[in-house]
## 1
Amino acid sequence: MFTENKTRFATRINFKKITFTRLRYLCCQAPKNAWRIGEIDSSFLKKILSLVRLLQKITSNQLIMSGFYKALSGLALFVSIPVLIHYLGNTSYGVWVLVFTLFQWVLLMDFGLSSVLKTKIPELQHTGNTDLINAYVKSTYKICGYIATGIFLLFVLLFAVLDVKNLLNIDFDSGFVIKLFLLNIFFFCLNFVLNTHKALFVSVHKGKFAEQSIAVTQVSFLLLLIVTTHCFPETAIETKLYLVSFVNGFVSLLINLIYTVYFFKSEKFSLKTKLETPKEYLNSIYRLGMKYMAIQVGGLLLFSSANSIS
């Protein structure tokens, strides 16, 4: 009798690699009259496990998940536009778009370093030269830091020499305009350096994490923006622009920092190497980077002038 029951039990749950957590979940989803594990229908368990395997395949697919995260970030950006217009008003929203767009153009001043990372690291991984990879990544962060510092000092100099308020036709006090730009350029320069993790993820064939970080940033910004609109609804318009700039910069900084730490822990790369990248190798990187930069600028100019040509 015992042998017969044991055989029947084994037949009902004839699967491989069922973890305790999954079984507990399946027990909770089973019908109320099937609370014993031996009474759970094997077809029910098989359907659940096949669904879990399907979800695992989908989430591990870089192309599908990259498309999903890109769509999610686009949706969050689309939803945030009416929220910003309602909170800032038409004129102040135009100022915010001007500031945001200006610094997006400045991103081209990385001299194509992010694009070079995507091609050079796979090449070095193929040769198995881990030390040179670490030295190259460290050099890239150094160069990005120098560029970010140069950009910040350049804008400070421009604000001291030029009348930005009249130059850009902004209907606000000059002191406020300078402070607003400095706040945004400060966060931009920090994120300019930390943004390197996106190119690093792509270089190790994990591009979905680059898109995931963008999606998380956009969704987090949208949620905090909604909270800000409810907590500070009646403040002065200058304060609202400060708040939006701070929320945008802080969220981007925090998410970029988290994903940068995650990359170096998951991929076992290190910035503590003492090896210096050979100058000949750096020169070839600079030349390739300038080519990438020329292609990017040319593409933007072509895209911007397409309407005028047509």
## 2
Amino acid sequence: MHQSQEFPDIIGAFLHRTHAKYLLSGRCINPSIFHISRIAATSSIDCQTFIDRLQRNSLGRRTHHLFKCIFIGRAAFDVFRIILSERLICLLYRFKGFIFSIMERIDLLFAIRQIKYEVGEENCCYIHLTLVPYIETANELKTKPTQHSVKELHELGIIPNIIMLRTEHPIDDQTREKLANFCNVDPAHIIQNLNARSIYEVPLQLEKEGLGKAVCTALGIKKGPADLSEWTRVVERFNNPEKNIKIALVGKYVALHDAYLSVVESLIHGGIENLASIDIDWVSSEDLTDDEATENRLKDADAVIVPGGFGGRGIEGMVNTAKYCRTHNVPYFGICLGMQIVCIEYARNVLGFADANSTEMEPETTHPVIDLMPDQNGKILGGTLRLGKFECSVAPETKTAQAYGSKTIWERHRHRYEFNNVYREDFKKGGLIIAGVNPERDLVEIVEVPGHQWMVGVQFHPEFKSRPNKAGPLFREFVRAACENKENKKNKN
């Protein structure tokens, strides 16, 4: 088997440039567009061919298996082994789970077993996560599923160093000792993972239970107590907000909240920075059929966010949303498609281009203010996305410049259509602020509506870089604008 030296970079590109949520048995799940595709090897191709296909997909070129499901074959074993050995990924694998049959997951399990002997026992730590069900009528926690799954792992040659128990009720010492004896694990390495008030408390709980110490012991690492002071501050601010705001999320996939998971989490990060709790009002853009319906649905919101999406469904409702926010001075944050919506609405109702649209939604529009780049025209669907991190020069004295505090920023992208530069001067003459441009290709990245308390649209995806302890600058400022808008409404009343 040919082991490419560039493979670690390929995996990094795949994870970071396609924004994959999971990489399990070649399954790539992109949470931002609710589209699932599989990238997998079959018995008819070798490992290097699989790697080449993975690389082409990660770089945004033509995807070989576009919109198709192809099941895992034997060649994938070598790929998984490279991923594990050359990247030294810390892997927590739930034996019973996700969606794999025994034949689909066997290659991954073989790779997990073999990695211990490739990197050395002292450099490998197996963590096995299981569910401990509680039988209410018997008032008893059942450990038999855990014992059985550990037995199956032993048969495959995988011996867990640590067992994590997902449970709704505390694990007593007797249960811990029983599991340690039957599963051949140190009692100190039986870690309970209790329900928490929020996901942000889980790292603190696991540290308190001794997970960090158990991992260091298994790997022979001599370290003192973990410094979680910064994370503790995040949890304290999250649990003790001083105000509450309501943000309307207008989109076409709102029936599946996970489609916007990264955006919602980033709003929460902005709330942590501003000591504000966030209530999300999920609004289907298809319900916003006219100005009256839009105002009635959004009038209680302190701010509105329109995230990304693909296709023409629900677009007119988003345009109505942008018009409502612009004319009623309601804070608006448009991401990717949401930024394009700002341009379409502004062109129609300020510049007077009545049929202004994106060629994605209306190919025959006479005012294509959003269009494909010239080098994309005529290409098939696969491989035409602009993916990854790109530079953006920020105009001074703009809300974006105030948020970032920098003239140059780097943000991650995932889109196909762009602001049409043919109309840039028309927009500028009409007052729209071009707040950010990609200097390499002169592409408009950020627009702001003048005279508005906060109406910003960005072509990139700032949610991909936001963190609980370091909120994305635009999310931080958007939440701040929402808080100020709520306070202003209260003072008026």
